[in-house]
Amino acid sequence: MKKICVLIVLALIFTTCSASAQEQRLTGTDSFRFTLIDGGTAYRVSVGTATAGVVNIPAYYRPDTRSSYLPVTEISEGAFRERENITAITIPSTVTYIRNRAFQKCTSLTSVIIPVGVTRIGDSAFAECTSLASVTIPVGVTVIFSDTFNYCTRLTSIVIPVGVTHIGDNAFRDCYSLTSIIIPEGVTYIGDGAFLVQVKDENLTSITIPSTVTNIGVRAFYGRTGITSITIPSSVTKIGREAFHDWTASQTINVEGHANRTSADRAWGSEWRMEQYVGRNNQWQNRNISAQINYLGQ
Predict the structure, then answer these.
(1) What is the residue extent of each domain of the chain?
(2) What is the pTM of this model?
(3) ∠ at Cα 88 (191, 118), nearest 5°?
(4) Torsion angle of alpha carbons 25, 29, 35, 41, nearest 10°?
(5) Which CATH architecture is the domain 34-247 placed in?
(6) Which of the pair, 11 or 287, is modelled with greater confidence?
């Protein structure tokens, strides 16, 4: 009787282990957990359990041999957050949505290709990936949300694809290594602190604001002292305070659509061309930025 019981227990253990191993093989790795979404038609990577090396996210998944393979279309909020030893990630073409903070603080991640098909990249999705040197944003993305690449300190260049209309608050804040940025026609909104650096930075030497932009946020280009000149197109109807904080006398701001300071201040208020500093008695005061401002008129 004891032998029979032992055999039954061993059989149950073997069956459980085999099912678990089968589930892992069907995902292509044992580094994920999945959640069924969209009325049972797709899966989301709910948790990435890999802690190091290269991560290959599968395009399709089924939990067992009785189930059909379904596409993996989403990466969940915080799925790989703080996996500090992950060095590379392959995202399949089935994925359409990378949720908030999905890869935040993956500090060893050096590059990522976001495939065509992804239409939404959430807040802070790659924030604080301090080793990330290159990233491809696909055509199809229309909004770069807040803090998406905040504090990616080794990111050297970024191409924002045609179709993007909105660059969110702090989207590229403290990306000190950026040397070039291409903002395409069609972008209407540049958010607060979008390209701000807290310490003066001279790596970024040029940037073009397209003629479709209507809003430039508070401190949008704060600390970008390497830009030799910038032109504010006549399409702009709003500029936030301290948009050009720390800009120096060797830099030039060309203003289209306004013939003089009075006209520009009437449209935007005077704080767009000012910066705050600690004055007498340790009180915050405003002063004009040092940059040369040319008013080009209509």
Answers:
(1) 34-247
(2) 0.86
(3) 50
(4) -60
(5) Alpha-Beta Horseshoe (3.80)
(6) 287
